[in-house]
Amino acid sequence: MSRLRSKRRQHGFTLVTTLVFLAIFLIFAISMVGSSLVNTKVASNQQFRLEAKTVAQQGIEQVLSQPFTSVPITDVTSVDVDVNGDGNKDFTAKVDAPVCTGTKPVLNQDLDPTNANDVGCMFSGSGQNTGILLPNAGAVPAPPCQATQWDVKSSVTDPNNTAASVTVHQGVAVRALNGASCP
Length: 183
What we know:
By secondary structure, the protein is α+β, with helices and mostly antiparallel strands. It has one domain (2-106, 143-177). Helices cover 37% and strands 23% of the residues. The chain has helices at residues 2-64, 116-119, and strands at residues 77-81, 91-95, 99-105, 145-157, 165-177. Mean pLDDT is 79; it is low at 125-129.
């Protein structure tokens, strides 16, 4: 008879053990779903941030494609961008006016006479000015071109309330004629 009671107790133990393992697996499954949702949100935020960074760079490139050294940009330029091609703007890049950070003269020895961009910066006249001071020759006139260094800043905030916000700074060197706007 004691053997019969032992079997009945074992059946009850099997049921309790099964319920405990079922609860453990249920908790594990719920935590996996939660982790999956978090990973999806992280991936979406990374995508929005990458899109915003690309839009900021596109805004900078649009401003740099303008002749900003001869026609100064004084205001913030808004650049609307359609990322997914549906005809609606997805982001707007706010590009600040380029800021000149420095200049230096471009000397003849730094120019390449076979490069069309350099020819306008060379001294004209009957002889090539090498930039070397000769005895009793006097001072060499200032070169007609200057190398300017600029900082361009673009900011983008995702309008879809994802809190993705990016600010990109890009430095650029521009060769300009003397007198171009660079303080």
